[in-house]
From TrEMBL:
Species the sequence originates in: Carex littledalei
Keywords: Transferase
Residues of the Glycosyltransferase N-terminal domain: 8-247
Cleaved signal peptide residues: none
One Pfam family hit: UDPGT
Protein name per its UniProtKB record: Crocetin glucoside glucosyltransferase-like protein
Length: 478
C-alpha cells in the first residue's frame, strides 16, 4: 500500500459563512473520510454555523475544541472561529442565514478581520492541507506562509467559468452562447457606481482565491458540466477536479422539526401523483413583497396544488422605498394566509420555517420544483429526477437556470430583468411543465438524468483523494 495512505493526514476546512456552503463542505469531508481511513477533517467555522453542522453529523464522532488545545484524533472535529465584535452583528448573526442583505458587507469584513485568529488555528492544528472558500483568499495566504498547500472548493462551474472569462478576457464573447450574464441579470442591475464597484470587488476577491489555490475542487460532474470544467481549467491554468454530485443521505429530521415535517408529508401524501408544485428559495434568499405578490397570484392562476416554503430575515431594515421590512413581513404573511384561504388547504400549503426538502423532492406526488437555482437546490432537484421551474434571483443563479434549460431538465419563468415577472408568467410556466408536451419532454429528461446520477459510482472522490495525497506528498517532499 502507498505509504501516503498509511500516514495520518489532517485537512482543515474553512467554508464561507453560509449554511449552503458549510453543508457542501461537510458532505465533502464525510466522503473523503470514507475514502481515506487515515484522514481527519478539522471543520472550522463560527459557533452558530457549527450548531447546525453538529446536528448534521449524525453517527460520526465529533468534538468541539478550544483553540488552546490540540485536536484529538477523531475523524471530523469542529473548531470554533470567533469573529471580532462588530456593532449590529451579534454572534448569532455570524452566518448569512436569516441575515438581511444590508448586513452582508459587515459580516464579510468581520470574517476577513478574523485572519489572525485563523492563523493561530493553523499553528495549533498544523494541517497537511487547507480547503478554503472563494471569499477568503487570506486563508490560502496564511496556509502558504506555513508551507501548507491550499485548494479552493467551489459549487457550480458554469458560472465560475463565466466570471473567470469576463475577468481574464474582458470584452470577448463567452465561447458558450447558451450562457450569458448582463447587468439586468444581477441584483446590482441599477448600475450605480456603488453597486458596480461592489460587484467588481467581489469578483476580484473570488479570482484571487482561484489564483492562490493549488488546484480547484468543484461540486459537479462531467455529465452536466464537462465543457465548462475544461474551459475553466484552461482559463486558470490549473486543474479543476469534480467531486460528483455529493448528495447527502436523505437523513433524519431534528426533533424540533419532526412534527412539522410529518404534517407536510401527510399533506403531500393526500395529493394526486405529479400534481404538486414545490416552491422554495433556499435559506438565504428573501423575496421582496412585490415579487411574492406576483408569485402568489401565479400559483393561484395555475390551478395547481403547491407547497410554498417562505422565509424572512431575522433582523429588519428599511427598504429603498422607506418601508420597514417588519411591516413588509407582516404584509407578506397576510398575503400567504389570504392565498391559502382563497385556494383552500386542499390546494395550498405554506410553511414559514422549515420543510423536509429532500423527502419532498423524491415524493411521487410532486410535479415540479420551483427554485431560485441555488446550486445545492439544482443538484438536489436533478438527483431527484424532478422537472425544475427556474426563477433565479441573484449572482450565479441566472446562469444555473440557463444550464437547466440547456440540459432540457427545466423551464425558466419569463423575467424582464431579475424580479420583474408577473403572475401570468408564473402560471403559464407551471401549466407548461405540468400539462404540455414540452413538459412531458422535460420530465423524461429530468428522470433520465436523475437515474444517471443515482446509479453512478463515486469515482470522482477516489480521484480527488489521490490528487490530495499527491499534492501533500509533493509539498512535504520539496
Amino acid at each position: 500500500m502507498d505509504n501516503s495512505r498509511k500516514k495520518s493526514l489532517n485537512v482543515l476546512m474553512l467554508p464561507w459563512l453560509a449554511h449552503g456552503h458549510a453543508n457542501r463542505y461537510l458532505e465533502l469531508g464525510k466522503r473523503l473520510t470514507q475514502q481515506l481511513d487515515n484522514l481527519s477533517i478539522h471543520f472550522c467555522s463560527t459557533p452558530i454555523i457549527l450548531e447546525s453542522i453538529r446536528d448534521n453529523l449524525h453517527r460520526l464522532s465529533t468534538v468541539t475544541i478550544p483553540l488552546s488545545q490540540p485536536p484529538p484524533q477523531t475523524r471530523i472535529n469542529l473548531i470554533e472561529l470567533h469573529l471580532p465584535e462588530s456593532a449590529g452583528l451579534p454572534p448569532h448573526l455570524h452566518t448569512t442565514k436569516h441575515l438581511p442583505s444590508h448586513l452582508n458587507p459587515i459580516l464579510s469584513r468581520a470574517f476577513a478581520q478574523s485572519e489572525e485568529t485563523f492563523a493561530q488555528i493553523l499553528e495549533t492544528v498544523k494541517p497537511d492541507l487547507v480547503i478554503f472558500d472563494i471569499f477568503q483568499p487570506w486563508a490560502a495566504k496564511q496556509a502558504h506562509q506555513r508551507n501548507i498547500p491550499a485548494v479552493v472548493y467551489i459549487g457550480c462551474t458554469v458560472a465560475m467559468s463565466w466570471y473567470a472569462h469576463s475577468y481574464f478576457s474582458p470584452g470577448k464573447e463567452f465561447p458558450f452562447s447558451e450562457i450569458s450574464q448582463t447587468k439586468d441579470n444581477r441584483s446590482e442591475k441599477k448600475g450605480s457606481a456603488g453597486d458596480e464597484q461592489n460587484y467588481r470587488r467581489i469578483i476580484e476577491t473570488v479570482i484571487l482565491s482561484l489564483k492562490l489555490a493549488d488546484f480547484v475542487i468543484t461540486r459537479s460532474f462531467r455529465e452536466i458540466e464537462s465543457k465548462y470544467i475544461d474551459y475553466f481549467s484552461t482559463l486558470l491554468g490549473k486543474e479543476v477536479v469534480p467531486t460528483g454530485p455529493l448528495i447527502p443521505d436523505i437523513g433524519s429530521v431534528s426533533p424540533g422539526d419532526y412534527q412539522e415535517a410529518e404534517e407536510v408529508m401527510h399533506w403531500l401524501n393526500q395529493r394526486q401523483m405529479r400534481s404538486v408544485v414545490f416552491v422554495s428559495f433556499g435559506s438565504e434568499c428573501f423575496m421582496p413583497y412585490k415579487e411574492m405578490e406576483q408569485l402568489a397570484h401565479g400559483l393561484e392562476l395555475s390551478g395547481a396544488c403547491f407547497i410554498w416554503v417562505a422565509r424572512f430575515p431575522k433582523i429588519k431594515q428599511k427598504s429603498e422605498e422607506g418601508d420597514c421590512e417588519e411591516t413588509n413581513e407582516i404584509s407578506a404573511k397576510a398575503l400567504l394566509h389570504g392565498l391559502v384561504e382563497r385556494v383552500g388547504r386542499e390546494r395550498g400549503l405554506v410553511v414559514t420555517s422549515w420543510a423536509p426538502q429532500r423527502k419532498i423532492l423524491v415524493h411521487p406526488n410532486l410535479g415540479t420544483f420551483l427554485t431560485h437555482c441555488g446550486w445545492s437546490s439544482v443538484i438536489e432537484g436533478m438527483h431527484a429526477g424532478i422537472p425544475l421551474l427556474a426563477l433565479p434571483m441573484d449572482w450565479d443563479q441566472p446562469m444555473n437556470a440557463q444550464l437547466i434549460v440547456n440540459l432540457g431538465v427545466g423551464v425558466q419563468i419569463s423575467q424582464r430583468g431579475l424580479g420583474n415577472f408577473t403572475g401570468k408568467d408564473v402560471a403559464a410556466s407551471i401549466k407548461q411543465i405540468l400539462s404540455s408536451e414540452i413538459g412531458d419532454n422535460v420530465r423524461k429528461n429530468a428522470q433520465d438524468l436523475g437515474e444517471l446520477i443515482r446509479t453512478r459510482k463515486d469515482d470522482e472522490i477516489r480521484i480527488l483523494s489521490d490528487k490530495i495525497l499527491g499534492l501533500v506528498s509533493n509539498v512535504q517532499a520539496a
